[in-house]
Structures are given as C-alpha cells and as structure tokens.
C-alpha cells in the first residue's frame, strides 16, 4: 500500500486523509520534514496559501519538498496547494515552491459568495467529477510540458506536469475518490520506475 | 453551477482548520494579521474589550472598515452582525464579506429568533456554549461553530468550560442507543436526523473553533488539545504589548499545539498580554455568553 502524506500545517488535512484511505492508500499527516522520507507521494491541501507558504518557510519545507520532487516523487496540490506548487503567481513577485510551470491567478472567481460547485469532466477519468470551487485560483498560462486535464468556462482548472498534479477545486470535500485514485496511481508508477 | 450550497459554505470553514482568525479594526492591523499567518480576519470597529469598556449598544461596523480591510488582504474577511439582525447580515453579504459572525459580542437585535442563515449565499459562524445550542444554530444554517467563551476578558476559563461541555456531550450522544436519541433530540430542541448524524460520527457536522478569552500561545494550544479545529483571537492580539509578535506566536502555537518546546520558545519575551478580567468580578449583566440561546 502506498504511503501518501498530507502536509498538515493548516487547511483541509483530514478530508484528504479520508479520501486517500478510501482510494486505497495509507495517509500520513506530515508536520515535520523528516517524515517525507517514508512517503510515496505528498498532497498539499486547500487552506490559505499565504499561511501555508509562511509556515512551510518557517519549518524548512521549501527545500525538503523541492528535494522530494527532485526524486520524482509525485505531488498533488488542491486550491491553495496549486498556488504553492506554481512557478508564477499573477500580481506577486514571489511564488512559493516554483515547481510546476504554470502561472496562477488567486481568488480568480471572486469572493466567497461567488464560490460554487459543478460537474466537471477530467481527462483520464470516465464520468465528470463533482468539483467544489471555494475562493478558487485559476491556471492562466501553462508551458508545453503541462498536460491540461480539464477546463471550466474556458479556463484551466486541472493540470499535470509529469509527477505534479494540481486542481483549482476541492475533490476532498466530496465522496468521489477518483482523482485521489488517479494520484495514487501516479505514486505507484513512480515507485515502480524507481525499482526498475 | 450552484453557489451557496452547504458544501461550498462548510467547505470554506474546512479550509480554515488549524488556523487562527484575528479581530482587526483597520487596514493596518489586517496587514499585520495576514503577515503573521492569520487564515482570516474579522473586521470590526471595536475589539470585544473596547466594546465592554464603551458600553451602550454595539452594532455592525461601519462598511468602510470592512471595505478598507478587504482591499488590503487576500485572506478571507469576516464581519459581525447582531443576533437576529438579518438586515445587517444582508448588508454585509452585499458588501462582499466572506463570512458573517452572528455574534453575541454585539448587542442582540432579537430576543427570540436567530437569523435564518440558509437564506444567504455567504456562510455564517455562530457561537455556542453547549451541544444543543450548536446544533440549533447548524439547523438554522450555520456553517461553522465557535465556543462563546467570555469575549474581551482575556480569560480562557469560559471557553474551556464550553469546549469541555460540547466534547463531553458529543461522546454521550455517540454512546446512546438509537431509541434514546429521540428523547435527547427533544431535550436539546433539535432535529432527530441531525442528532443521528452526531451519534454516528461522534462529531459536529461543521468545524468548531475556540473563541472568547484566548490571550496567549498556551491558551490557543490548550483549546486545540480540547478539540478545537482552530482559534479566534479577539482582543488578545491588538491589546497586547507587541501585536506582531503575539500574532505570530499564537499562529505557531496553534499549528504545533503538541510541541511544548516550541510553545515555550514562541512564548518568550512576548511582553504583557492583554489585561484580563476575572469572571466572578464581572457583573452578570456584562456577560456576553448569555446572549443567544
């Protein structure tokens, strides 16, 4: 069973852990950098990206997660996690991990009263999934290496670049575990590649 | 596409988990709070201890306070409406507040009815002293709960009492047989199905934060140990000697509430916390937690 960490500094940690368990993985709440060694993949959850970014810097997660990524181990960022993984943030000079070659716009749909849920088709998953957008960011630009997995109203909301996966919305707030299963599969492939 | 669904509203509160929400009175304080790592700010004219000192009728803040704060921070901005004052709440929603606190800190506008919170696209947070009160607010559409504590006192004892009581009652309901639940639902004045959900999960269906009297990093960590999903800090930050340092320390103590060495470190040389009030010295008419039911 693949061990998937959920970065547990702030945000929807328990929901991701529940979804990973339901999709057949073993979830681990990650509060310390040392814990990364035992993992096959890591989720950076939704929450407040500014807060999560600050705490990541404070506790040495910036370097540790970049190292984790350099080993080809998969990362999955949802909402705030997407912002944390992006190379560029619109209107901001500094980004966080700068791992995925995308430009994101924060709070792109507006304030909380504009938050919504909808059925969303995702490439590689058979039927649409239920996607919950909460003060959600959008992916404005992607490099050619990035595979766009879904588009909502002409805007990119799910994408993958090799071992990196991101969604603007919150799959962990529903009982549909298929995106988590998709990520578990990425972790499985990465682990097998390493063995080979 | 659907806006304002209960999943969208409750989800917003889920994203606040493990975080600290801070009271701010202007744009400058909001920036300090965001820089310290607050997950949201509560925009108001006066923090609870000032409301206490000022006396008179406490109302919704001037809309310019909310607008100024919304302009300078990217984290969610909350605002308080009086209990039962659905027009104040509609005004806050129209202004773009991300969350409304139907709060006992303000003078109640209605002595019988709380706001019908299902009638809003924005989510609501409400205070509760016990399980029945929490479930009645959730029934009315609250998407997040918090303890009432005794706001503006810098005294954690009441928040502890409320959290202990709610957690104990959750365990009691979880241990009941199904036929006992009907009677308990009547006792608590709540819907049977809602109570059945609590019986099955042992938890409230929404996030529950600690509020009312949090004044030090250890206070925040204590509330996390007792089962809070996160912490509201009102007067505790901007009534302390060094708000920036206090704010950062409370954020760190909330994240790492089991790391006592770290809490010791962040608690060093913080200066004087807000001056507190011993609850027994408080005239009963001054108790805010008794507002709402």
TrEMBL record, chain A:
Keyword Lyase: yes
Keyword terms, alphabetized: Glutamine amidotransferase, Hydrolase, Lyase, Pyridoxal phosphate
Pathway connected to this protein: Cofactor biosynthesis; pyridoxal 5'-phosphate biosynthesis
Record: residues binding L-glutamine: 47-49, 106, 134-135
Transmembrane parts of this sequence: none
Keyword check for Disulfide bond: no
Annotated coiled-coil segments of the chain: none
Pfam family, one: SNO
Active-site feature positions: 79, 170, 172
Subunit record text: In the presence of PdxS, forms a dodecamer of heterodimers. Only shows activity in the heterodimer.
Listed name of the protein: Pyridoxal 5'-phosphate synthase subunit PdxT
Organism: Paenibacillus spongiae
TrEMBL record, chain B:
Catalysed conversion reaction: aldehydo-D-ribose 5-phosphate + D-glyceraldehyde 3-phosphate + L-glutamine = pyridoxal 5'-phosphate + L-glutamate + phosphate + 3 H2O + H(+)
GO MF terms, alphabetically ordered: lyase activity
Enzyme Commission number: 4.3.3.6
Keywords for the protein's UniProt record, in alphabetical order: Lyase, Pyridoxal phosphate, Schiff base
Pathway assignment: Cofactor biosynthesis; pyridoxal 5'-phosphate biosynthesis
Span of domain PdxS/SNZ N-terminal: 6-211
Its biological purpose: Catalyzes the formation of pyridoxal 5'-phosphate from ribose 5-phosphate (RBP), glyceraldehyde 3-phosphate (G3P) and ammonia. The ammonia is provided by the PdxT subunit. Can also use ribulose 5-phosphate and dihydroxyacetone phosphate as substrates, resulting from enzyme-catalyzed isomerization of RBP and G3P, respectively.
Quaternary structure, from the entry: In the presence of PdxT, forms a dodecamer of heterodimers.
HAMAP family cross-referenced by the UniProt entry: PdxS
Protein name: Pyridoxal 5'-phosphate synthase subunit PdxS
Organism name: Paenibacillus spongiae
